[in-house]
Every structure is written in C-alpha cells, then in structure tokens.
Task: structure prediction
Amino acid sequence: MSDPKSTSLRFLPEDTTIPVGEGETVLSHAIRAGVPILSPCGGESRCGKCRVIVAGKTEGGEDPGILSPAELQAGVRLACRCRPSSGDITVTVPPESRPARLAAYIEGRNIAGDEPFLPLHAATGKRKPLGVALDLGTSTLAGALVDLSDGSLLARAAADNPQMACGEDLISRIVYGEENEGGFALLRQLLGSGVEKVIAELLGSGYADSEIVDVTAAGNTVITHILFGASPAQIRRPPYKPVLREYPVRTGEELGFLTAPSASWRLFPSLGGFVGGDIVAGILVSGMHREEAVSLLFDVGTNGEVALGNKEFLVACSSSAGPAFEGGEVACGMRAYPGAIESVRIDPERLRAEWTVIGEGKPLGMCGSGILDLCAEMFRAGLIDRAGQFVPRTGAPFVETARGKAFVVARAEQSGTGSDICFTAPDVKSILRTKAALCAAADSLLFAVGLPRDAVERVYIAGGFGNFLDLRSALSLGVFPPFPLETYVPLGNASLAGAIGALRNRRRWKEALSLSAAATYHDLSSDAGFMESFQRALFIPHTDEESYRKVLFPRAGR
Result:
C-alpha cells in the first residue's frame, strides 16, 4: 500500500504534482489532477492506450500481453493498473497517450448564411447580447459564439470531452458512474469543466460572459442527462428508457456553471435510449423532415445513430457501433489529430502501405478514415478475405505481435512513436463489427417501416468523419447500404449546426421540439431481424455482394 503522507506524484509535461491517494491507480490520479490520458475502455485494462512512462517505485501495470519487453524495460506501464508504491513518482504521458489540441470544426449546412435570422435580443449601447451553441459530443465538445442582435458568428472553439478518461464509449461511462463512489458527480464535473473551457476560449476574442444570455446545446442522451444532473443508469438496461426526453430550461447557475450563470440553457430533446438531441439537431439541419423524398441520416461518431423519414414520418435508432471509426478499439488507432494517418493506399505489387498524415511530422497512429482506407486496400490487394481473415502473401509485411498477427503500416523508424504502427487481426474484427452494426441499423429501419432500399433518395452523413472518409472505401467495405454514390451528402458537424440554427431562430427550436415529439424511437434490442441483418453485414462488403458491385461499378453492371 502507498503512504499518502510521504508519496507525491508528478505528471509531465504538465509539471503537475499531487499527493498520492491510497490504493489509487495512476489513471485515477490523472483524472483527479486534470491531466488528460486516453482511456477508451474506462480503465478496465482492455485497450492498452493509457501507456505512461514511470520513474519511481510502483506496483502493477506490467501487462506482457499488451506491453512489449522493450517497453517494460523503458519503464512503460498501463496507467489503469499501475499504483504508486513509495517515494516520489514521476509519470510522463507520451504524445500517443494524450489527446492533442483540437482545431474547431463546425462546417455544415445552415450555419451562417442560409438560416433565416430572427432577432431575439436588442443590443443595448456597446453591449452585445451573445448566445453560445454547443455540441456535447461523446469525444469532442465544440462551440460557437453568436451575436444575437444580428445573427453573426463571432468565434468557434473545440476541446476534448474530459470524460474520455472514464471511458471512450457511453456504456463505459455509465459503468464508471455506477461502480465508483461519486462517479456520476465526477462525470458531471468533468463535463462542466470541458464546457467552461470551450466557452472561455470563445470569449477570449474580447467578450464577457455577462453578455451571454442564451445557450443551446445538443448531445447524446447520456451526456445531456449527466449535464442536467439526471442519472443515465437505466438507459443501459431494459427497457432502455431515459429519465427525460425533454429538458426544462435552466440557468447556468442551476446547472452548476460559474461562467454566464444567468444565461438560459436549452438542451435539445432526446428521442429515446441512446438516440439523443444530436440526431434531432442533425434532422433539423438536413431538412429531411420537411421533404417529400425519403432520406436516411447517419450520425457517425463514437455512438452511431441512424434516422429514416420524410415530412410524413420519422424513425430513429442507435446502432451501438462503438468507437472504432474514431480510432478506438484499434491497437494503433487514434482520433483525427496531427500525426494521424488519414489515408492509405497499398501498392499492389510491393504490398506496402503508402499513407498521408494530418499535419507535419511522423505518424503516431491511424484515425478512422485511414483505418477504413487500410481495410479496403487490404481487401483489394487480397490481404484480407471476405470474412476479415488475413491472407498471407509473399512479400506482405505481416509480423507476430503480442496481439497476434499484424500488418505493418509504418515501420518503427518511420513512426513518431519509435514502434511499428500495425493493424492486427482483432482490429479487423472490430471494424467489421462496427460497420455491420451501422449498416444493419439502416436496413432494420427500412424493414420496420416496410420500405425497400430503392425508396431512399438521399443519404446524409453527419459528423466530421463523414467529410473526410473516402466514400468508395466505405462502400467497398459495406459501412453503409449500397446506395448510389451521388445519393450521399456530407453535413459536417450537424449537431453544432443545428444548435446554432436554433439559437439564431427560435422557430427552429420549436421545430426541434415538435419533430422530436413526433418521431418514433426504434429499439434494435427488441428487433428480431436486426441480428440477422448484422450477421449478413459482417462480411466484406456484405452477403449481398452483387448490390455493392452495381453501386461501385455501375457500367460493369450494364
């Protein structure tokens, strides 16, 4: 056991020192100290992404199934298992184990030019009435500052959701909240600190928080429940119903915010289960609820959501896709930060990967678009079969790792981590499960309302991921159902765009409330046909291979 009175723990590069709590892991100390460390599995020792370099006496964290002998020799440990023992401890968090600073990303429809503006507040003297729009994402918090006297967009900002230290997916966070004393209170505190960080950055351009009078926020059901102070625990248990679908308007002070305490907060309503206000905001931005044509909307993020409908009906579900498309559950996966491999091509003769990296410098890992490209390229090159099994070929850079056979994407001397960047057999299975869940969710919605695939005229893809993926790669893997390429429309960050639209025009807010009340939540856990659709979609691209071939190679099908 550690002695809290004689032991201190110092984190680098923050140079933050805190006293050690008895029996606590390094990860727990990091959360308490506000030091960001990636922990997609919520500290359950499954992902191996909370690597830290430890100097001093510690116990645990030496998992040989995840860490190589060279890493162990260098003092690398898993923060979720490592506990301070005695004396002063120094923990260095390497670049690949920490979230990088995000560039604000809010491109989307209906942000600044094409959304009708109805003034809600008049300027008084030099003081401008300000509004803040927020996207409360599972992984990312994004915000925009709006002048409510003329509707102009003044600033934008983004930051990582600090809750990621307690788990990358929603289920992990609910489990963390239930299994740790004061867990949900800590999750709320972390979320609040992240939101205030975003607002502070927005105001950094010369504005005061006293000028903020309105805040609109869209997010998934779990995140908005935590922000509101309601327990999300029952969302993960049958019948998977949230405590609230609509949230009463509250002031910032009532929600526990020190910044802009008198501002009115409006949280977008949820549809049910894990289908939250983010998909409602996406529907609002797409305009699918106003059209005659039937459309599909995919919100591709840590928690995939799908909506189907037109002006006559709306139905939505959560695909439980998981974080693989954002680099989670993949050994060398990472989010779309500088250093992430974002696109991949494989030379069909040399069987070597050629890649591009976000920003300058050597690669640190692979983000979602790069992972999908890699999977698709390996399939085209005959290195993966339709079931996702590796196919050995002479000259292909396969190696044996602690996680089994792996394909080397970047050699140690090419990478910024000093280790090979690999794609393992379990990684392939994770991608197949994720894409199968998303595709099967859409097929299940169509079956539930009695429509064939060819009834869909437009497919919207919300989330920054949709703007950067290679659509041909995605379809060649079967991420989406086989709709013609020209059917797909990327929306960017539709959750934030919807929050901005509702902030600038109160009619849009009322529209969000009415469409959420009219929409139907489809529970896939009680859909007998979903698992059958899921099993069919586990193959590359699908058991219905011919439909994908016609979409990808329309001339060959004539």
In short: The domain at 130-278 is CATH 3.30.420.480 (Nucleotidyltransferase; domain 5). The longest strand covers residues 83-92. The longest helix spans residues 425-448.
